[in-house]
């Protein structure tokens, strides 16, 4: 179709660069306007320059790896020739940037920084490919690879701030490892689908939606975390606060969730969809339906009308991608942070504990048990920083003399009815206790499901 223009080469170059830039601006503004708006332009510039630096770290290993990779193996090229060599530099650069700034920025800042770094990385990558690829393959790559880099950058930003702002322990790196492993798989599967081509293009919305909803969840969680300045002022690390907040929700559930007043309050999981979102999504959803009908009637004319486009590229760009945009627009900011703050609550498995500190012994319950520690309501006479010996009683089994250290006391001196408590950290993780508790929890949940099914079959109207 470009033969009608006398400047075909210039037009193609302009369209290639324009497509890459447009996709970049769209995804960057999408998240900037929906969730976050930094006060300082210097933060934006730092993220952009970090993205350029990341490209520099990734491009030379990618070029060198081509000598050692099997050109016929799509799996090697997708995962080890691209995904691994791009995801590792992203994580390392974000770790480096926030190392000296961990007491300045919050989790939402980390996510935004990662998003901007990922967008910059994706833009430069698409610009590098523009002289190599034809227009339609580049178009497909630009509009699909950009969100992948955006999502993985945002996930790293969340993981890095969680790592830096949590209490130091020997297992803190696991969050970083999980984020790298997840992004490596997501990016690798995306590359593999593009390489094998064909009907696998239909999987693109599923892959993109996976990254989108993971990031959406992390963004929602970040909105429920206190600013780092507040946590520092009360002497808490981020994981300590998470333990205390879980106890607060458990306590609220015990005190008020069964009351009639509480039952009247309805907090939806999803926010209400606006009319504009529904209209735009309906239009986007109608595009693939109309184009697919045209394709079925005139399949041979599609490559002619669209300048030699391949059928797989046509399906990816005009049938699959509008569906992805529909999902993106409908789901933007749809998760309700208040629901996650007040209603996401596993019914606690109550664990009795005996806490011994020198000659004093406290009998209480343990909440929010993890490999790092737990929270327990205790008397204010407990001394912070001194080791204690804890005995746990879980489902008829006793776990004795586990060393722990109380690191933070939750007290309200002006409220005599407030039940004080403390955050305890383990000297070393009690794996036997943790696995036994997990087994009991799963067993109890399965029994509850089976009992619920039996009640429904018997026609009972009472819940368990």
Protein topology:
Elements lengths: L7 H27 L6 H25 L8 H25 L8 H23 L5 H30 L8 H24 L7 H19 L5 H6 L4 H19 L3 H5 L10 H23 L4 H4 L5 H21 L5 H6 L8 E7 L2 E7 L6 E5 L10 E7 L2 E14 L10 E6 L4 H27 L7
Antiparallel strand pairs: 1-2, 1-4, 3-6, 4-5, 5-6
Helix pairs in contact: 1-4, 1-5, 2-3, 2-4, 3-5, 3-6, 4-5, 5-6, 5-7, 5-13, 6-7, 7-13, 11-13
Given the structure, what is the number of helices?
15
Helix/sheet category: alpha+beta
Distance separating the two termini? 66 Å
Largest sheet: 6 strands, antiparallel
Which regions contain 5 or more consecutive residues with pLDDT less than 50?
1-6, 460-464
Q: How does the overall form come out from the CA principal axes?
A: elongated
Strands side by side in the biggest sheet: 2-1-4-5-6-3
How much strand content do the residues show? 5-15%
String of helices and strands: HHHHHHHHHHHHHHEEEEEEH
Roughly how many Å is the radius of gyration? Answer: 27 Å
Mean pLDDT: 79
């Amino acid at each position: 179709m470009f033969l009608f223009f006398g400047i075909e080469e210039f037009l193609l170059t302009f369209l290639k660069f324009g497509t890459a830039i447009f996709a970049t601006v769209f995804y960057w503004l999408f998240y900037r306007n929906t969730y976050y708006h930094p006060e300082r332009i210097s933060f934006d510039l730092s993220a952009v320059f970090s993205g350029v630096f990341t490209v520099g770290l990734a491009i030379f290993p990618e070029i060198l790896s081509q000598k050692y990779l099997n050109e016929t193996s799509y799996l090697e090229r997708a995962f080890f020739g691209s995904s691994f060599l791009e995801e590792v530099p992203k994580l390392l650069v974000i770790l480096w940037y926030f190392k000296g700034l961990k007491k300045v920025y919050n989790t939402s800042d980390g996510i935004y920084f990662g998003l901007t770094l990922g967008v910059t990385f994706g833009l430069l990558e698409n610009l590098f490919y523009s002289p190599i690829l034809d227009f339609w393959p580049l178009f497909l790559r630009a509009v699909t690879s950009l969100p992948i880099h955006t999502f993985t950058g945002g996930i790293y930003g969340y993981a890095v701030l969680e790592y830096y702002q949590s209490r130091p322990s020997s297992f803190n790196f696991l969050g970083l490892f999980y984020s790298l492993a997840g992004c490596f798989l997501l990016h690798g599967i995306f590359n593999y689908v593009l390489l094998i081509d064909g009907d696998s293009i239909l999987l693109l919305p599923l892959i993109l939606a996976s990254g989108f909803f993971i990031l959406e969840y992390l963004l929602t969680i970040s909105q429920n975390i206190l600013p780092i300045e507040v946590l520092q002022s009360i002497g808490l690390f981020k994981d300590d606060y998470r333990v205390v907040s879980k106890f607060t929700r458990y306590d609220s559930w015990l005190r008020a969730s069964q009351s009639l007043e509480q039952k009247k309050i309805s907090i939806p999981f999803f926010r209400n969809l606006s009319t504009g979102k529904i209209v735009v999504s309906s239009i986007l959803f109608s595009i693939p339906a109309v184009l697919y009908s045209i394709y079925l009637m005139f399949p041979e004319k599609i490559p002619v009308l669209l300048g030699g486009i391949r059928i797989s590229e046509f399906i990816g760009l005009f049938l699959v991608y509008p569906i992805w945009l529909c999902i993106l627009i409908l789901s933007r900011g749809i998760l309700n942070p208040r629901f996650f703050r007040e209603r996401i609550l596993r019914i606690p498995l109550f664990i009795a504990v005996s806490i011994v500190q020198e000659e004093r012994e406290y009998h209480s319950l343990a909440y929010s048990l993890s490999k790092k520690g737990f929270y327990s309501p205790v008397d204010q006479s407990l001394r912070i920083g001194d080791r204690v010996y804890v005995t746990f009683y879980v489902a008829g089994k006793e776990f004795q003399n586990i060393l722990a250290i109380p690191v933070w006391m939750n007290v309200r001196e002006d409220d005599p009815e407030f039940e004080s408590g403390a955050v305890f950290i383990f000297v070393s993780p009690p794996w036997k206790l943790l696995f036994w508790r997990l087994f009991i929890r799963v067993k109890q949940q399965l029994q509850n499901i089976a009992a619920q099914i039996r009640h429904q079959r018997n026609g009972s109207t009472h819940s368990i």
